[in-house]
Amino acid sequence: MTDTTKSKPKAPEGIGGGSWREALRVPALAVLTGLILGAIAIVASGSNVFAAYGALFVGSFGDPVRFFNGFQQLFTTGETAGLLRAIYPFTESLVTATPYIFAGLSVALGFRCGLFNIGAEGQFFIGALCSAFVGYSIKGLPAIIHLPLAVLAGAAGGALWGMIPGYLKARFGAHEVVNTIMMNWIAFKLSDWLLNGPMKASGFRPVTPNVEHTAELPRFFPDPIRLNWGFILALVVAYALYWFLFKTTLGFEIRSVGANPDAAKYAGMNIVRNFVLVMAMAGGLAGMAGAAQVLGVDHWVGQGFSAGYGFDAIALALLGKSHPAGVVFAALLFGFLRSGATRMQSIAGVPIDIISIIQGLVIIFIAAPDIIRWLYRLKSVKVEQTVLTRGWGS
Amino acid sequence: MTSSVTSINPAQARRTRIAYGIVLLAVGLFIYLIFGLSTQTGLQTTYGINLVGSRAVSVPDLVVPTQLTINLMAGIAVFVGAFQLARGVKSTGALVGVIALTFVVAFLTWAAQGKSFNLTGMISSSLVRATPIALAALCGVISERSAVINIGIEGIMLIAAQAAVVAASISNNLYIGLIVALLAGGLIAAAHAYLVIRFKVDQVVSGVAINIFGAGLTSFLSSRFLEKNTDVLNNSGVFPTISIPILDRIPILGPMFFENNIIIYLMMILVVVMHITLFYTPWGLRTRAVGEHPKAADTLGINVYWVRYVNVILGGMIAGLGGAYFTIGSVGRFDEIMTAGKGFIGLAAMIFGKWTPIGAFASSLIFGFADSLQVKLQILRVPIPSEFLLMAPYIVTMIILTGVVGRAIPPAADGQPYEK
User: Fold this and answer.
1) Domain spans of chain B, in order of start
2) pTM of the shown model
């Protein structure tokens, strides 16, 4: 390394070498290009792109005029109502991002060990159901015990759902890609049965009862702002995962198995144990996503509760280069996009699915940085690539 | 990691033998205790052979005494299990067959006790339900034989399904819809090929991106255009059933294989053609060489990139055919996310079938069978929650993937980019 590169700020471990600026340049340009292509799609479909992206911005960050009026009101009268209304879209984006952080971490952890966890969606659902069950069935516990218990139940449920494919992979060599997908479908059918039978609340709809107040993740602001401790928990867990992966022996082992299983085995590492452990942890993270959603936001679980989180989580892990910090940023981006898209749909009449199109394009650009470099005439830099997937995992 | 499990030592082989024997005994016991003891003597199960509206020669229905049949199945399982423990059976496939057959026959006989159950209907609907799965699996086989993983089959099928129905509705011609579906599938696959071959994008990542993109694009177009103009854009009608003369008169097999629409026939033809191409032609040999050892193939003058492009694009067209099945082959309209995981189940079928066309087709039939079985069982009002019946195909996949097939070995270079 030469002196000039030394003076640049270094990217954190595992982001793939180079400086911070290098690490951020391609993802930022990829998102920009995705938005531009999305704009073309919006124009082609006959909608007004400025109205659409304006609504997207207001829907994800909030209306600047409202912010201004809110502050003015606060300083002149001391009333916070206006300001609270102004920050509502912004907090909703963070609320949307919370399960994304957990789920993205789940897939990213798998990638680090060379495992492809497509099962985050099923693990999410099972985790949510376990949390809801503990949340509504146990009554009279103080919150200090009940809430952690409910969160842990979600993590445990997800961990179990992830551990099964992990064990089958480690012990019998069955492909985790197929088995996690199968576990997803089994989770959907199981939840259909649970929501129509044993866990159904009284009434017509197939949903669980509301969880007890003692099991709810406390909210920071009065209704309707739903931002809660789940978001903080997600950030803490992301940091903990970073520490685990890059500062502990076990984390080193996991990354070694992911980078080169043969070498890791030769060095005396237990591959079977690592596979089971990683899949259980990944499942646990996805389960916590479900727990955070049910305990912090919805307070009950219904059908289709987990829709789309599994695939979004894969996109997040790729976007964040399987690094916890990257995943958090990616999850925030998705949170803002998804949350704003709801408003874009209602105001500008652009279907929310445009976000999926943009997401798909962004993933392609992130995965093929050469396209971005070619488009923007960037100098080609030698970046160490993290191993993302190993095909069918043999 | 492959080496640690695939090397079989004598002690391990013995353990496997004993395990199979015990499983067989357990299956026999289970059949006897759960199914056999819970039926009343004297009841009969009727297996219907004739399908209403079918051209097959009419034959009498198969009527069997319920309890005797169940106990017979239990006896077979126990006998084979005992034999396996004492002497050992060479073929694992035969053992699995016995387990599956005895269990399924006993279960069906039990479920339909005192009632009638149309066997032919279930078998022919198995093939129909297997069609999109088989086409997805064939797409996987052809591109992975040249070492390109295509996990985006689901997305390709969705896009092709929508393209097919829109083209067919506008032109009022189903064949134009079919051609457009093939082109759409080939186009998306070409993009995948270009990304993974030219830009060396991680193949699984590119496939996932195609899935997300496909789901987004089709849902976007659907809610923006199709919903408002259903009559013009999303109303195509379906391919008619074509009966093949003489052959369609055969009982059971006639309605299953010879009274279908064009897509199902094309699928069956593709299985045969692909098997022959892959294993008995120079092109197939080149494809397999590129999939196993691209460097060696390159040294011998095979254009590795060209072979991969062609295979992936052909695979995309096959997936496009699978997509067309969903709309112009079965319901005549497009619904959002109507593929419902069939692309992924196709990948499971491909692995199941060990990357061979015939194996992939056979395993697709198992999925199709499990799928149609659960529909029939719901009609029979079996005292099991329908959700658990619906889980059956997925659980079956996991069990077979784990215990029976063991470690399926993909083409050696599968998923790796090639650099000259």
Assistant:
1) 9-114, 124-404
2) 0.83
